[in-house]
Design brief:
The complex is a heterodimer. Chain A is of the alpha+beta class. Chain A is built from 10 helices and 5 strands, in the order αααααββααβαβαβα. In chain A, 70% of the residues lie in helices and 10% in strands. In chain A, helix 7 crosses helix 8 (239-259). Chain B has one domain (2-114): Substrate Binding Domain Of Dnak, Chain:A, Domain 2, CATH 1.20.1270. The N and C termini of chain B lie far apart (100 Å). Chain B is 82% helix and 0% strand. Classes of the chains: A alpha+beta, B mainly alpha.
């Protein structure tokens, strides 16, 4: 009985061992299953499903082989191939991810470059506008300079014309009056006898012709100078008579010159009486010289005071 | 009786030694993958190099087994094929990854140029 029990126990153990060996998959199959399960929950399932499916087909063959025939060399071969295919699916998934990164980088690079180009174009456009503006300013300045140059030329021409006119007028004046320059300015001296009758202050007709020439000469002097008409008498007679006579004569000359175009605001008249004789009054000739009208054209620096 | 048995064994022996025909397309594909892996530089990538060598060795083994009439030759060729494809994939991965790193660096450089 004891021997029989021992034999039964050994049989059960052998059967158990045999069954156990038949249901224990080989390491390759376990590893392939584990690798597939991991990949099926990872990147490969999303990026390389076809490759992963190929791996599953081979893994299925390995499983079928194991289920039907146990741990055979064919089962191990299929498991080996399945594991390689799972790994290949993972490798291709990572590669695809890298390719996507490249595509994104290239796309982003294009956007960045486009923006840089736009920015550069905007800066260029701004610089062009600035240059145009500066060119316009420059042209305006050139035009201004040309205008000023033209103005200067016109003024120069006018000055030359005025100087020529003045020279001509002074030359004509020299024929009828004494012209000299002293500390008071340019002094035009007209003899009293050619302007007035004795003790009168009304201008003679002949005087007017000469004063016309004087007026031209005065107008040619320019508008900025002050002029004074001084009346002088000889010493015969009292100051009570001579003073108003000299003032009236100066005023007559001044008023006539104004009628001939001399600026009234620039010319004044004063009577000097006999206080400023040119010569002593001892003889008739000297007294005739002292009876005179002087027109003084003051220098600009005195006129502006 | 003995004679008949001898004849039967001889026939069986001859049948066992009949060469197995490897599928030409599979063999071609495997060898193409090996060449491709070599061209993309698998020899310079340790993991790829290992699978490349395995592919070569197993291709030789498969041919030998086929010549010897071993039916497992087809499966060994399939193993070789899977190793060759994996070697090619690993080598490509390294190359593409290097391109991705370079592209990222280029993008950074372009951005830096735009924002000095």
């Amino acid at each position: 009985m004891k021997t029989m029990n021992m034999s039964l126990l050994a049989t059960v153990a052998w059967v158990g061992l045999t069954v156990s060996c038949a249901t224990t998959p080989p390491a390759q199959l376990v590893e392939a299953r584990t690798a597939y399960a991991a990949s099926n929950n990872g990147l490969s399932a999303k990026l390389t499903p076809t490759e992963l499916h190929d791996a599953w087909l081979v893994l299925d063959k390995a499983n079928q082989e194991f289920d039907q025939h146990g741990d055979t060399i064919q089962c191990r071969d299929y498991a080996y191939i399945a594991q390689n295919k799972v790994q290949l699916a993972d490798v291709k998934a990572r590669t695809e991810l890298d390719r996507q990164k490249i595509a994104e980088a290239v796309k982003a690079g294009v956007v960045v470059r486009d923006n840089q180009v736009k920015s550069t174009q905007a800066a260029l456009s701004s610089t062009r506008e600035q240059l145009k503006s500066e060119r316009r300013d420059s042209n305006a300045k050139s035009e201004e300079i040309e205008k000023t140059a033209e103005q200067l030329a016109t003024e120069k021409q006018a000055r030359m014309t005025a100087e020529a006119r003045l020279a001509g007028a002074m030359k004509d004046l020299a024929a009828i009056a004494a012209v000299k320059e002293d500390s008071r300015g340019l002094v035009i001296t007209l003899s009293g006898s050619i302007l007035f009758a004795s003790n009168k202050f009304a201008l003679l007709n002949t005087a007017m012709t000469k004063l016309d020439q004087v007026a031209e000469a005065l107008k040619a002097q320019g508008s900025d100078k002050q002029m004074v008409v001084e009346g002088h008498t000889d010493s015969q007679g009292s100051d009570r008579i001579n003073q108003p006579l000299s003032l009236n004569r100066a005023t007559s000359v001044r008023d006539y010159l104004v009628t001939r175009g001399v600026d009234s605001s620039k010319i004044s008249a004063i009577g000097m009486g006999s206080s400023h004789p040119l010569l002593d009054n001892r003889n008739a000739e000297n007294r005739a010289n002292n009876r005179r009208v002087e027109i003084i054209i003051q220098p600009s620096h005195l006129s502006t005071r | 009786m003995m004679k008949a048995l001898t004849m039967s064994l001889a026939i069986l022996g001859l049948a066992g030694c009949t060469a197995v025909q490897l599928p030409a397309d599979r063999l071609e594909k495997s060898e193409a993958s090996i060449r491709g892996a070599e061209e993309v530089g698998a020899s310079g990538v340790p993991a790829a190099k290992l699978h490349l060598q395995l592919a070569k060795d197993q291709t030789v083994t498969a041919k030998k087994m086929a010549a010897d009439g071993d039916n497992r030759a087809v499966l060994v060729l399939a193993r070789a094929e899977s190793d060759a494809e994996l070697a090619l994939g690993l080598a490509r991965e390294v190359s593409v990854h290097a391109d991705a790193v370079r592209a990222t660096e280029d993008l950074k450089a372009v951005r830096d140029r735009g924002n000095p």
